[in-house]
Write a structure and sequence with these properties.
signal; 69 residues; membrane; transmembrane; transmembrane helix
């Protein structure tokens, strides 16, 4: 389990740049310029990360509880 957590930490802090914009957001970001476009992209990534983290915690707790039974 420690290996999985370590791998997740490495992936999160690796600094890989992700593009998370739909076509409408991309057009808006191109019109705003480079600085605000990066902020828009970071905001989209943060909004997407929250439900994924919650689901990950739920799955982790489910497997942990079933393993002990």
């Amino acid at each position: 389990m420690k290996k999985i957590i370590g791998l997740l930490v490495i992936i999160l802090y690796s600094g890989v740049q992700a593009m998370a914009q739909c076509s409408l957001c991309t057009k808006t970001a191109q019109q705003l310029g480079e600085g605000p476009a990066k902020g828009l992209n970071n905001g989209i990534l943060m909004l997407a990360a929250t439900p994924l983290i919650i689901i990950g915690i739920m799955v982790f707790r489910h497997f942990r509880n079933n393993r002990e039974a």
